[in-house]
Amino acid sequence: MVLADASPPFFDMEFVVLYVLLPLTSIIGLTFIIERAFALRWRKVVPLEVEGAVESCQTREDVPLLRRLCEQHPSPMSRLLTLAADHLDWPKAEAVDAVQTRARHEIARLERGLVVLEIIVGIAPLLGLVGTILGMIAVFSNVGQAGLTDPSKLAGGIAYILRATLWGLLIAIPSLVFWSYYSKKVETFAVEMETLCDEFVRRQYRDEVENPKSEIRNPKSKAPPPIPSPVEAR
User: Fold this and answer.
1) How deeply is 71 buried, as exposed, middle or buried, from its count of CB atoms within 10 A (0-12, 13-18, 19+)?
2) Is 0.90 surpassed by the pTM of this model?
3) Distance between CA 72 and CA 200 in Å, rounded?
4) Does an H or E element contain 162, and which?
5) pLDDT at 226
6) pLDDT for 149-159, tens place per residue?
7) Measured on CA atoms in the order 77, 82, 85, 90, is the torsion positive or negative?
8) Phi, psi dihedral angles at 174 (to 5 degrees)
């Protein structure tokens, strides 16, 4: 075969790309695809029990029950609600800021591994291209030295080295599909967690918002100072 007579350095490098780097890239990508599939399940991020508890948590007397359910079902949503419950004695603006800061950390944890898939999407076709170019250099270098005595061997050698490009694309395409799918799923989780946390905080601080209005609407709540009589004035 033409590749067997090719220049050893180029052939060795093409062999490393095709049979070492590309398979290793494929294994890493498949590992993160499977790991994210388990980590980004709906029940792992927003348990149905916790979601139902948020709906039924109307006052601060219901917060202990919500806290117990969050402890029984650990998840990013549970950690955010537990943090919000711990800061109910803070002013509303500061409590919201604390929840938002923790939410950014939880979203970053959900996105863990997606950057690896993004890198594989870009690097797999490039590795395939590098392997093909190295193989082409080796084949045509051998043709230049020995001459084109058997065109079938040249065609077979070219077909062999083009496998690197094919493998690179076959690795990159599924990685791109799952990276896009998981990224969209993380966005959906972020919107759902933001909605539930906002609903919980708004309900718990509802009394503080309504009380000032009730005082304005009921002027008799504060009695005016007594007006002295004319006799007392004298």
Assistant:
1) exposed
2) no
3) 19
4) none
5) 52
6) 667 767 777 87
7) negative
8) -60, -35
